[in-house]
């Protein structure tokens, strides 16, 4: 147990030192291999975009999004976190759809990712919250019976119905499109 804690602390110190040597991060100055999951010095998340030229050639650019990271600034995600969390540096936008994929949530909720990669966890915590799911509860459910855990999450008060239903619905209240 102590060696695991020591390894996480060593990794965090390494990541901090790496970030300190890079100086101020501007998304537009990052390349394709460092853009996705980076956070600029301003606290805004970086996003990788693909543009197709008239010739059919693909060109990748990094830009600053309007999404702010929570308490994280000047951050380029490490290769260790990319691997541990099961994310891809060539992501074009990030979808909450990943949260319903068992393989992905298994990696996201693993101690290596959840305890050692605060930037990735912050991002998916906010994505999950937007879908009415509390990420710690989802990860807790993965440790036990996954079906029962998902049922408990659905019964926790927030339900995200399918496309026909409209939007997030709170139990005990009529759907958002229903008249009061």
From TrEMBL:
It comes from the Eukaryota. Residues 1-23 form the signal peptide. Pfam families: PAR1. Transmembrane segments: none annotated. InterPro entries: PAR1. Keywords: Signal. The keyword Signal applies. This is Peroxisomal-coenzyme A synthetase-like. It comes from Hibiscus syriacus.
């Amino acid at each position: 147990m102590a060696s695991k804690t020591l390894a996480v602390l060593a990794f965090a110190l390494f990541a901090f030192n790496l970030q300190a040597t890079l100086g101020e991060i501007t998304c537009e100055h990052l390349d394709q291999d460092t853009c996705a999951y980076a956070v600029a010095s301003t606290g805004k998340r970086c996003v990788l975009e693909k543009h197709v030229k008239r010739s059919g050639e693909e060109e990748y650019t990094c830009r600053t999004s309007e999404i702010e990271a929570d308490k994280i600034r000047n951050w380029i995600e490490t290769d260790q976190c990319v691997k541990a969390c099961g994310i891809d540096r060539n992501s074009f936008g990030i979808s909450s759809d990943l949260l319903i994929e068992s393989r992905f949530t298994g990696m996201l909720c693993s101690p290596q990712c959840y305890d050692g990669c605060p930037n990735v966890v912050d991002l998916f915590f906010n994505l999950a919250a937007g879908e009415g799911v509390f990420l710690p509860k989802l990860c807790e459910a993965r440790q036990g019976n996954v079906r029962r855990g998902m049922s408990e999450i659905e019964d926790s008060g927030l339900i995200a119905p399918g496309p026909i239903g409209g939007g997030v619905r709170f139990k005990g209240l009529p759907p958002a499109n229903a008249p009061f």
